[in-house]
Design a protein that fits this description.
The chain contains 7 helices and no strands. It is globular. 67% of the residues lie in helices and 0% in strands. Helix 6 crosses helix 7. It is an all-alpha fold.
């Protein structure tokens, strides 16, 4: 594999916007090579309907991996998973990038989870 330094990758004589784009591409490549291979499982499973809810994702990739990559403590991430409506959109969009799915897809998965949890809470309240 050919190794290139960051300076060589950027080159000379680029406008600031071209530098920005190249930096983002370089960082994406670096992250892509170091990221957990299980991230690649999520997109096809969402597309085929095997993942319908946000929390279903974590049957295929450990939440510890995602929380670490997101920069969240596992305890906080667990709390957010049980109350998906408390996730920040920015965090959801970052996770969509990890899974290589569109932002609207991850929001739909979260909404499905939220609606399911909401109906379960209503059902248990009626039974009490």
């Amino acid at each position: 594999m050919y190794k290139v330094t960051f300076a060589e990758f950027l080159g000379n004589n680029l406008s600031p916007s071209a530098y920005s784009i190249k930096i983002k591409c370089f960082l994406y490549i670096m992250i892509k090579h170091k990221r957990d291979h299980r991230y690649d499982l999520i997109k096809p499973m969402v597309e085929t309907g095997k993942i319908m809810f946000f929390n279903d994702i974590f049957k295929y990739i450990p939440k510890t991996v995602v929380s670490k990559d997101l920069g969240k403590k596992v305890d906080r991430f667990n709390t957010l998973m049980s109350r998906v409506e408390e996730f920040m959109l920015e965090d959801l969009f970052i996770m969509a990038g990890f899974f290589e799915i569109d932002e609207d897809v991850i929001v739909r998965l979260v909404m499905n989870d939220y609606k399911r949890n909401k109906s379960e809470i209503a059902t248990s309240a009626r039974l009490s």
